[in-house]
Design goal:
The chain is of the alpha+beta class and 128 residues long. The protein is built from four helices and five strands. The chain is elongated, with a radius of gyration of 18 Å. It has a five-stranded mixed beta sheet. It has one domain: Ribosomal Protein S5, domain 2, CATH 3.30.230. It has helices at residues 33-36, 40-53, 70-88, 93-98; strands at residues 4-10, 13-21, 26-28, 31-32, 59-66.
Length: 128
């Protein structure tokens, strides 16, 4: 099997994943997953599609992540890994789609409006 690549996005984070057969090593921006995502919750988010399909020791994953915060980056990476697995084996798509790993979460921060302190909040109104 040659290298399969896929892209995942969440908020302003973009993750590009390269999937190849190997021993189960996950490298993100040339760092190990334990170094890049020190929080166990974020590592769990990234490994969700791998655990759902039961292919933990079968593929090596190399990822480039840019933009966003750590939570958005982890969820973008989860989506990219899921898309790469679907590209490798199309029969995995229903299992990943049922868990919501292939759905793009399009919620972003709303921009601040002029004449207001935030996106929706208004300054206090004074009648007199």
């Amino acid at each position: 099997m040659e290298t399969v690549n896929a892209t995942g996005r969440r908020k302003t984070a973009v993750a590009r994943v390269f999937l190849r057969e190997g021993s189960g090593k996950i490298t993100i921006n040339k760092k190990d997953i334990d170094v890049y995502f020190p929080l166990k919750q974020l590592q769990y988010i990234v490994r969700q599609p791998i655990e759902a399909l039961g292919v933990a020791e079968k593929y090596d994953i190399t990822a480039n992540i840019d933009g966003g915060g750590f939570k958005g980056q982890a969820e973008a990476l989860r989506m990219a890994i899921s898309r790469a697995f679907v590209e490798v084996n199309a029969e995995d798509k229903p299992a990943l789609k049922a868990k919501g790993f292939l759905t793009r979460d399009s919620r972003k921060v709303e921009r601040k409006k002029p004449g207001q302190p935030g996106a929706r909040k208004k300054f206090q109104f004074s009648k007199r």
